[in-house]
Each structure stands twice: as C-alpha cells, then as structure tokens.
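We treat protein structure as text, and this decision shapes the records that our systems exchange. We quote a single record here, exactly as it is kept in our systems:
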Amino acid sequence: MSMTAAEDQATGAYFLEPGEAELRCSGATRTFFLATGDTTGGAFALIDETARQGETVPLHRHSVDHEALYVIEGELSVCLDKLPCHRAGPGAFAHFAQGVVHGFRVESETARYLLITTPHHGEFYRAISRTPRGEGKGPGQPLDDDTIMAACRTYGVEFIGPFPMADLV
C-alpha cells in the first residue's frame, strides 16, 4: 500500500488517493484496482478500466460470481443473456448475476468503465493482466490463450461464444 493510502484494519475503513491504485494491463486495456477483497474485508472489488475501440469481451458466464458494469466515458455494446444487445454510454449500468451470459465491445475510440464484482472475480482480472512495462506505464503484453484459459478454469469463467454482430437497441 502506498504512503498516502489509509486503511484501518479494525474498522474496515479504507481511503485511496487519486493515482494510488494498482495499475495492471492486458494488451492495451489499462486496469486500476481501486478496491480488492483485502481492502474491503471481502465485501467486493472495484476495478476502473480503460480500453480501446474494438476491444471485446466475448460472451461468457461466471459459475460463482456476480459482476456489474458502469460506463464513465465512451460507448460500449453490451449483451446480456436473452435480452437484446444495447449501446451503453456514460451513466449506463448493467448487472450480470451469477450464471448470466454476457459480453461487451468498445465502440468509441476509447471507453472507461467501472467493474463492481466479488473479490474472487476481481482476482480473475489480476490473473489475466500484467504489471505494465517501464516507467511510462505503457501497455502490457497480450496474454497467451493457455494463460487465459487456465485463469478461466481457476475462477469459474466459461466462454460461450463470440460477441454477436447483431443490431443493437
């Protein structure tokens, strides 16, 4: 933990200054861990991601975890189980309950969004990302398929298929 972050283990209070979050990357996607199971007493994880146009999370489901997405900047296409796919701009929110098939794709030049999830699934994001290279905190190297699939098995993520290219609502 940094010198400016503050944590009271006895009460569970936690404060993080801007710029103090742990940064990891998966390819060009930048992932900031704002809160983890360790800092929330196991209550939740909060992740701030910025991704480039075309970055896609294929359709998948979680066997154990819930996850929610809140768009801060840019535009995503979001598909949820049997619902029509939607364009999601700033302020849009989606909840993916355990077992719900979902996926998304970045449509704007870049998009920034929050992921709110269980600590267990937060660690999945750590497993599929790497510490960025060098002092400039540039993008990390893309992970190989074997590493990603091993993380999926460990954290109960099942890929269902590619992201649909259907019309959006």
Q: What stands out?
A: The first strand starts at residue 6 and ends at 8. The radius of gyration is 16 Å. The mean pLDDT is 87.
